[in-house]
Amino acid sequence: MDIKPCRPKWKGTLTDRERFNNQMHYKPVDRCFNMEFGYWEENFHTWSLFADNGVTNNSEADVFFNFDRIEKLSGQIWMHPPFPDKVVEETENTRIIMNGDGLLAEVPKDGHDTIPHFTEASVKTPRDWEKVKEQRFRRDDPARVVDTGAVVKRHPPSRDYPLGVDCGSMIGKIRDMLTFEGLAYACYDYPEMVEDMVETACVLVEDFLDQVLGHIDFDYAFGWEDICFKSGPIVSVDFFRNVVTPRYKRIGKKLHDSGIDLWYTDCDGDVRPILPLLLESGINCLFPYEVNSCTHPAQLLDEYGKDLRIMGGVDKIELGKGQEAIKAYLESLAPLVERGGYIPFCDHRCPPNVREEDYLYYLDLKEEMFGM
Questions:
Q1: Nearest-CA neighbor of 103 among 121, 89, 128, 90?
Q2: Using an 8 Å Cβ cutoff, are 312 and 248 in contact?
Q3: Angle at the Cα of 15 (from 258 to 331), degrees rounded to 5?
């Protein structure tokens, strides 16, 4: 069914593309760029405003709330083909499944959102990696070829919304394939194997960028890591400096040579130990910037100045506390929006403990404070 917006789009005098670029480059804007990161799967069933209006996913929710438009272009820059998704075993309350990364995971039968309990990885040794690399990481895989003409037709230079180019993951997807514990052990037991995985990830991104840069007019670059938790990164800072950073620098050079100077990575947790290395690599924006496992965004923006941008950083814990807490938190973000280089939205998927009426209050208050 066609999703109809439940509210008018924020008024403005700039296009979404002009607004995004100006805001992230500290230039004057008509108002704040209006976006959100999304919602837990449970929200689409428990929030009546979604269920009653046929909104079933985050893309539909963006249309429903009439957010500013922002688009991405991704390519086949990781494992292809993935491992087959299949059920390996069932118990009364859980299923043991194999996912696309080749992991065996225990998941609840009732389908509620939870972090899967991974029980085994398909890649454990260099011999496992050699086999998987040969079968699923071929650079000459026809699926990795980009039809740039079709992309330009879909996203013409005259478009009025920002478009980002995917720069993948140098270590986060490797963590997905090896598991948290598997990566931790492999960095010590098989360091050459892990570095070859990082190099493979980098080369596949470079191959993709070589096809699209110069042909398609991008506004920003993006990537995904999720390698940090509340105590910092799951790999050592030395490993990140010596193995990951050089690869990111190679990607960053391609971006900068093509005029792309805004690059965010999606990394949860406390990124502070590796933030100087991210900036050194060319990654100059954090997204969606989890507050509780790190710090209030003002602290990092004050520390790094205009070298750093942040997208996100609206504490989801405060959203769940009610309207008074929401107002107080947004007021703490007002100087950052005024400063530029910052776009406020929930610091991860909005959880179902946030009441619908409080979330609508939050959206209304954002428009009152940061709209025209």
A1: 121
A2: no
A3: 100
Tell me the domains of the chain and their CATH numbers.
16-80+122-370 (3.20.20.210), 84-121 (no CATH)
Plot region of 138 (φ>0 → left; ψ -120 to 50 → alpha; else → beta): beta
Centre a 10 Å sphere on the Cβ of residue 267 and count the other Cβ atoms it contains: 26
Residue 111: which pLDDT band, with cuts at 50, 70 and 90?
low
Place 115 in a pLDDT band, splitting at 50, 70 and 90.
low
CB 93 within 8 A of CB 108: yes
Q: Cis bond leading into 297, ω under 30°? A: no
Cα separation, 22 vs 336, whole angstroms: 15
Residue-wise pLDDT for 147-195, tens only, equals: 999 999 999 999 999 999 999 999 999 999 999 899 999 999 999 999 9
The overall pTM is greater than 0.70 = yes
Measured CA to CA, the distance from residue 110 to residue 30 in angstroms comes to 46
Bridge partners, residue 346, by sequence: 314
